[in-house]
Amino acid sequence: MVTTINRPYGLLRAGFPYLTSLGMRRMTTNCADIAIGQEGRLYSLNHLPMQILRFNWDDEDLGGWSGTGENTLGSGVQVLADKNEDLWISDEGKHCVFVYTRDGEFIRKIGEYGDGDGQLNRPSGIVFDSEENLYVVDTTNHRIQKFANNGKFLSSFGSYGSEEGELNLPWGIEIDEVGDIYVADWRNDRIQKFTNDGKFIMSFGTSGDDDGQFNRPTGLALDPHGDIYVADWGNNRIQQFDQTGRFVDKFIGDATMGKAARTYMMSNAVPLRLREMRSLEESKRFRAPMSVRMGEDFKLYIPDYAAHRIQIYQKEAYPLKEGEIAEPLRNPTLTVT
């Protein structure tokens, strides 16, 4: 079966304004990732304490959980909500992927420690394909593993190295409409693209802090226009690229205080004074973002790990048809008067 990509011929990029911030230190503490649920529900994967925290767009704390007994979360990295709003969580501390209901009831786990088929060593990124198979970034084994939805091992690809198609501590992963796979190759400071059976297609990025360069890229997100978003963890920013890997834009943080943060600050005199003494420009910026998520409504959610909040932006772009925009130019220069 041939799958076609329903993407626009071109885009009028009108802007990417900051919308709001959600969460605060005592609510989304060290938020490593979020899952976007139904009816406005959001799930924050927190590291201190290690738990899933449920909240909403009104910044209301709806309670949290961390599992029980041997199925308690150890060191979660990423969280996904499936069509039933069950939560899938990669756990690098317990070398597995846990599956829970949204209320925290254990369903099953996938994987165990090791380097054989179906075994994992510090898994990180996870993503579903169109058939609900699960792809897991098996970080310390330098590979990607594919599992059926019931946890059965299906296949894997990848090996250690820095050549095309090789991986060195990979982290984030995403899959596009045709099943092509994008991997954040953490220690190689690049993004690699593969076919759904693991054949190398292309890569972009080098080490550094200039536009288009990376310092340990972590999470990835895609949108229906084909744009790629990368959490450039070591550079404290999110970078945006088009489907060819061309740099488009970067986000360095624009945070304002959300409802929960304002309520807390107004009832605590010492933190209020500390904020009053601090540079507001500094307080807006991202601090070690580990993940980035794109909602169906083109809202970009950025878990701001060391700042204990989620910053949210809104993409504004208008699809263009062939004939509405010129062919690509060899030496493009735009002057606006």
For the record, give the distance between the C-alpha atoms at the N and C termini, rounded to a whole number. 49 Å
The CATH class, by name, is Mainly Beta
Strand order of the largest sheet: 2-25-24-23
The outline comes out as: globular
Annotated CATH architecture: 6 Propeller
Structural class: mainly beta
CATH topology: Neuraminidase
Order of helices and strands: EEEEEEEEEEEEEEEEEEEEEEHHHEEEE
Question: How many structural units, i.e. domains?
Answer: 1
Largest sheet: 4 strands, antiparallel
What ranges have pLDDT less than 50 throughout 5 or more consecutive residues?
Answer: none
Quaternary state of the chains: single chain
Percent helix: under 10%
Average pLDDT taken over every residue: 93
Strand content: 35-45%
Instruction: Look at the structure and name the CATH superfamily.
Output: TolB, C-terminal domain
Global Rg: 20 Å
Provide structural commentary:
A hairpin with a 5-residue loop joins strand 15 (170-175) and strand 16 (181-185). 7% of the residues lie in helices and 41% in strands. It has 337 residues and is mainly beta. It has helices spanning 259-266, 269-277, 280-284, and strands at residues 10-15, 18-22, 31-36, 42-47, 50-55, 61-65, 76-81, 87-91, 96-100, 106-110, 123-128, 134-138, 143-147, 153-157, 170-175, 181-185, 190-194, 200-204, 217-222, 228-232, 237-241, 247-251, 293-294, 299-304, 309-314, 316-320. The mean pLDDT is 93. The relative contact order is 0.16. The strands form 7 sheets. Strands 2-25-24-23 form a 4-stranded antiparallel β-sheet. Strands 3-4-5-6 form a 4-stranded antiparallel β-sheet, with no helix packed on it. A 4-stranded antiparallel β-sheet has the order 7-8-9-10, with no helix packed on it. The chain has a single domain (16-320), classed as TolB, C-terminal domain (Neuraminidase, 6 Propeller), CATH 2.120.10.30. It is globular, with a radius of gyration of 20 Å. The chain has 3 helices and 26 strands.
